[in-house]
Design brief:
By secondary structure, the chain is α+β, with helices and mostly antiparallel strands. It has helices spanning about 10-15, 15-25, 40-50, 60-65, 85-100, 150-160, 175-180, 190, 195-200, 230-235, 270-280, 295-305, 320-335, 350-355, 355-360, 360-370, 385-400, 425-445, 460-470, 470-485; strands at about 55, 80, 105, 125, 135-140, 145, 165, 200-205, 210-215, 245-250, 250-255, 255-265, 285-290, 310-320, 340-345, 375, 405-410, 415-420. It has a 7-stranded antiparallel beta sheet, with helices on both faces. Strands 5-6-10-8-9 form a 5-stranded antiparallel beta sheet. It has a 4-stranded mixed beta sheet with strand order 1-2-4-3. A hairpin with a 4-residue loop joins strand 17 (about 405-410) and strand 18 (about 415-420). Helix 12 packs across helix 16 (about 360-370). The protein is globular.
Length: about 500
């Protein structure tokens, strides 16, 4: 730390923080990384006083477990892991860490794909999995309030008997507050939207320990024009602006009947044209999923299926028993009109599960096809009209790089994933995956799309953020980060690089 003696108070006032930084950098080596505090024995004791000795650990196994997710990014373990039980404890932890300049990484279930939970600068991991209270379920108002550790599976198990569901399905056992943090969605987005459309209120602990209710404490209106939209400011913030400790979310009724269907096509363009026509006709689709031939091959081997190795659509319809039959028959006509083949549909639960077996097991099928390899999922989203050429460009990129490219897509909203395999100890393979992922993201951006539809920015896409949103929006994001987290302790180096904030 540098102390500079000014000749007068007036001169001190003339020197802004920016001028002081400039003056120091002229004569001294100024680091682009903040000087963070360390968790010593004294601070460890203070942490134990907040959450209890049983809820703080420095064991190597626990630290490593909380320093990694499903991505290819290497593990960066925190120095300690705290598991608070209440929002007040989270608040006290943040007050301590802010005062001591200790970096903090929130942790939900670790199912992310972009390195969002890696503790690049050590510090404290706040693991929220013990906050498992379902605070309230309002069956008449179709909403529920849950603590940070409640998963979507747990909430759905709780409300199923009331004929309700929380339909946002990212395909993993994610926590609902973690899904808020990454603005997750999934296979049901074409019908129910993403987390942004399904969050009514959030309880957030800021960097200094302040507890904020983004729509007002206890409020759960279905719409509001009151002030700034703070709720959606924190949805997708990935733990960089605050720690989400409670969420109030929309619930939806469980449909009377559900039908599933599958159809293969001679080409990608014919499959996508069918999707466009289905949406234009106003069919109330619950899911529209696309699998390319490479993915079908992997699923056939993994699940011992006999599906045609061709571009394939998986469809799901919901409504009354008579309406789903009508929808399925109408969709069959559209598929046939676009040269669709082997159209099959079913309403029986076991038959539906059999039809959708390939889609449900995609991730595991790809990993089983390449044993010992680590899987990574890209996450581009583009306007549906550009979907065929984007998937073709994806296939061309994979062929040129000599990597397999199994693809699965939530094509009803233009989002698709290419699963890439690598040996994470082989630097060449890791760099190849990074190169492919970046190239595909740039293709999506050039077509008016986004580098990420539901996984977030995290570590892997930071350099693509400014290109996508523009310098003005990026600078506004930096101002927001500096304002809410002036000491830059919340999930540092995620979304926005620290060297862009100094």
């Amino acid at each position: 730390r540098i102390q500079i003696l000014f000749e007068s108070e007036a001169m001190f006032r003339l020197c802004s923080a920016r001028r002081l930084t400039s003056l120091c950098s002229k004569y001294f080596s100024v680091s682009s990384v903040p000087i963070y505090g360390k968790i010593n024995d004294s601070i460890l004791g203070a942490l134990e006083n907040i959450v209890g000795k049983d809820n703080i650990t420095t064991s190597e196994s626990a630290r490593n477990l909380h320093g990694t997710d499903e991505s290819y990014h290497p593990t960066h373990a925190p120095d300690a892991v705290a598991t608070p039980l209440t929002t007040d404890q989270v608040s006290d932890l943040m007050k301590l860490c802010n005062a001591e300049r200790i970096p903090v990484t929130p942790f939900g279930t670790g199912t992310g794909f972009e390195g969002g939970v890696t503790a690049l600068h050590g510090g404290l991991c706040i693991a929220l999995h013990k906050m498992t209270e379902i605070v309230s379920v309002n069956t008449t108002d179709f909403d529920a309030t849950v603590r940070a550790g409640v998963t979507r599976h747990a909430l759905n198990d709780w409300i199923r008997a009331d004929g309700l569901q929380f339909p946002i399905d990212p395909g993993a056992g994610a926590s609902i507050c973690g899904m808020c943090a990454t603005s997750a969605s999934g296979t049901n987005a074409v019908r129910y939207g993403t987390m942004r459309e399904n969050v009514l209120n959030l309880e957030v602990v800021l960097a200094d320990g302040t507890v904020v209710h983004t729509a007002g404490e206890g409020r759960r209106p279905k719409k509001t024009s009151c002030g700034y939209n703070l709720t959606n400011t924190f949805v997708g913030s990935e733990g960089t602006l605050g720690i989400i400790t409670q969420a109030t979310v929309r619930l939806h009724g469980i449909p009377e009947a559900t039908a599933a269907a599958i159809s293969s096509f001679p080409s990608i363009s014919e499959a996508v044209e069918t999707v466009v026509q289905i949406l234009q006709c106003g069919l109330p689709m619950a899911r529209i999923e696309f699998l390319n031939p490479a993915m079908i091959t992997a699923c056939n081997k993994f699940s011992n299926l006999g599906l045609d190795v061709a571009p394939t659509l998986f469809l799901e319809f919901t409504g009354s028993e008579s309406s789903v039959e009508e929808q399925a028959l109408f969709a069959e006509d559209l598929c046939t009109g676009n040269n669709g083949q082997n159209f099959k549909w079913a309403t029986d639960h076991s038959e539906r599960e059999h039809l959708w077996k390939a889609r449900h097991n995609c991730w595991y099928a790809v990993k089983a096809t390449f044993p010992g390899k680590h899987a990574y999922s890209t996450d581009v989203v583009i306007p549906i009209s550009r979907l065929p050429e984007t998937i073709l460009r994806c296939t061309e990129l994979a062929d040129n790089m000599g990597v397999p490219a199994p693809i699965v897509g939530h094509v009803g909203d233009g989002n698709f994933h290419c699963f890439l395999l690598m040996d994470t100890t082989n630097r060449t393979e890791v760099e190849q995956v990074k190169e492919f992922s970046r190239a595909l993201a740039e293709v999506a951006q050039s077509y008016g799309g986004s580098c990420t539809g539901e996984h977030g920015i995290g570590l892997g896409k930071r350099d693509l953020l400014v290109k996508e949103v523009g310098q003005g929006a990026y600078d506004t994001m930096k101002l927001l980060k500096r304002s809410l987290d002036p000491n830059l302790i919340l999930n540092p180096d995620k979304v926005i690089s620290l060297d862009h904030l100094i």
